[in-house]
Each structure stands twice: as structure tokens, then as C-alpha cells.
Design brief:
Number of domains: 1
Number of helices: 13
Order of helices and strands: HHHHHHHHHHHHH
Shape: globular
CATH topology: Glycerol uptake facilitator protein
Pfam families: Form_Nir_trans (PF01226)
InterPro entries: Aquaporin-like, For/NO2_transpt, For/NO2_transpt_CS
Helix content: over 70%
CATH architecture: Up-down Bundle
Distance between the termini: 32 Å
Membrane topology: Multi-pass membrane protein
Keywords: Membrane, Transmembrane, Transmembrane helix
Structural class: mainly alpha
Number of strands: 0
Main location: membrane
Length: 277
């Protein structure tokens, strides 16, 4: 009898449930370091996307849609690294923590604590990457073709209406959490990579708003000379993007799947280990 190389949806939700319960029990210091690494990995994917798509100046001028696709195609490298190495990401936690909360296995304050520590670690990791790997390496000097690209990208992000950024944040994290779900369903490395890549590429190519990626994009652009203040970034982009990410992940992915497969609560899942970020 052939053995499937993916988890069925009911087993997948139980797998995610068990992993989320384990994460709640982690020491805050351990979760903080996992999230710090997650912030760095997302930032490195974002930096690669900026260099590749921003450096393709002729493509950008002649076919901006294809340039957006190129930008989206390389960005998922960071998210793939998060999942495969067991780092942590706030946005995927928005969905995964909803499963044990719905099943009354963890308390709401424990979910909020995981979100808070994860967000803080991602913040520190993204800011560190913006300074150390984008600015201090000289990748964002004025003579680089992708420097104006990231400045224009960041300035656009902080000059959108609140509700637009919010809705872009909703869709971004719906796709990020779908990517996480699909990645977790596979039992082999290649399957996880493919499952993650397509939804993440989609939200990035569409120009949606991912709060943790923006913690890299906007500060890196500010270091490169973008005319953006911290207050502008926090109020016009980071706040609505974060709220949208919570709604998209928790209310539109996590809770629906927790409800859809609530009847499987209590079944035994047999993953080889609990390693989901």
C-alpha cells in the first residue's frame, strides 16, 4: 500500500495544534531567539528580492508586471528558511495559535504572549538585518541601481490610506498562512518548499502588506535616505498592516480551519517530531 507524502487536512490541523501548544510552553527567551532568526531570514529574502528586481532596471521600465513577478519569485526564500530551520514568524503564529485556543487547550493571554514575543523577536531581527546586511555591507549605497527601487517601494508603503494598507495586510497574511499550511502538510523538504513558494510569491507580486517584511523594507530604505519618519512608518503602514495580518491569519485562516476540523480533536497524530515555526 502506497504511503502518502502529505498529511490529510484533519491530521494537518491536529499537527498544527500540537505544535502550537508546544510553542506556548517555550521559555520566552527561546521563542525570542527563534523569532529573531525568523526576522533575519525574512529580511534576507526581502533583500534578495530588492537586489534582483530593483537591479533589473530595463525590465522594470519595459514590463513592470514581469518585474513584480520576479520580485515575488525570489522573496519566498526567507519564508522557506523560517519553516525548514524551525525559526519563528509572528504572521504564521496568528493562524496556528488559533487552533488550540479554539479547542480550549491554551488561554487567550497565552496566545497574545506568543504573538508579542514573536513580534518583538521579528522586529529585532529585521532591524538588525536592515542595518548589518543591507546598510553596513554597502548594498544600499547611492550608486546601486536598486537603492532608488527600495526607496520608492518604502515611500509608497507609507503614503497609502489606512484602510488600503489594512486590507492588503489581510490578504497578505491569508496567503502567508496558506503557505504555512501547505508547507506543513508535506513530509519532504521539496514538497514543503513548493507548498510555501506559490502563495508567498503571489502576495508579494501583488504588492500586499506583510508587517514583518515591512520592518525590513522601510527601515532599510530610511537608512538609504528615504524621506520617512518613524511616526509615519508606525502609523501609516506598520499599524494597519499588523492589524490586517492578525485578521487575515487568525480570523480568516486559523479559526475557520479550527472549526472545520474541530470534530477531530483528540485524535492521535503521529508526526515524527514537532518542529513547526
Amino acid at each position: 500500500m502506497a504511503v502518502s507524502n502529505i498529511l490529510s487536512p484533519d491530521h494537518l490541523v491536529n499537527y498544527i495544534n500540537d505544535s502550537a501548544v508546544v510553542k506556548v510552553a517555550l521559555r520566552p527567551s527561546r521563542l525570542l531567539v527563534m523569532a529573531f532568526l525568523g526576522g533575519i531570514f525574512i529580511s534576507l529574502g526581502a533583500l534578495l528580492a530588492v537586489v534582483v528586481a530593483g537591479g533589473a532596471t530595463q525590465l522594470l521600465a519595459e514590463n513592470p508586471g514581469l518585474d513584480k513577478l520576479l520580485f515575488g519569485a525570489v522573496f519566498p526564500i526567507g519564508f522557506i528558511a523560517v519553516v525548514l530551520t524551525g525559526a519563528d514568524l509572528f504572521t504564521s503564529n496568528c493562524a496556528t495559535q488559533m487552533v488550540p485556543w479554539y479547542r480550549r487547550q491554551v488561554k487567550l493571554q497565552e496566545v497574545v504572549r506568543v504573538w508579542g514575543v514573536s513580534y518583538l523577536g521579528n522586529l529585532i531581527g529585521a532591524l538588525f538585518a536592515a542595518w548589518a546586511f543591507a546598510y553596513m555591507t554597502g548594498l544600499l549605497t547611492a550608486n546601486q541601481p536598486w537603492t532608488p527601487y527600495i526607496i520608492n517601494l518604502a515611500e509608497h508603503k507609507v503614503h497609502q490610506p489606512f484602510q488600503v494598507v489594512f486590507m492588503k495586510g489581510v490578504l497578505a497574511n491569508m496567503l502567508v498562512c496558506v503557505a504555512a499550511w501547505q508547507g506543513y502538510s508535506a513530509k519532504d523538504t521539496l514538497g514543503r518548499m513548493v507548498g510555501i513558494w506559490a502563495p508567498v510569491m503571489t502576495f508579494v507580486a501583488l504588492g500586499m502588506e506583510h508587517s514583518i517584511a515591512n520592518l525590513f523594507f522601510v527601515p532599510a530604505a530610511m537608512l538609504a535616505g528615504a524621506d520617512i519618519t518613524l511616526l509615519d512608518f508606525a502609523t501609516h503602514n506598520l499599524l494597519p498592516a499588523t492589524l490586517g495580518n492578525i485578521v487575515g491569519g487568525a480570523l480568516l485562516i486559523g479559526l475557520p480551519y479550527a472549526w472545520l476540523y474541530s470534530e477531530t480533536d483528540g485524535k492521535v497524530v503521529n508526526p515524527t517530531d514537532i518542529d513547526l515555526p
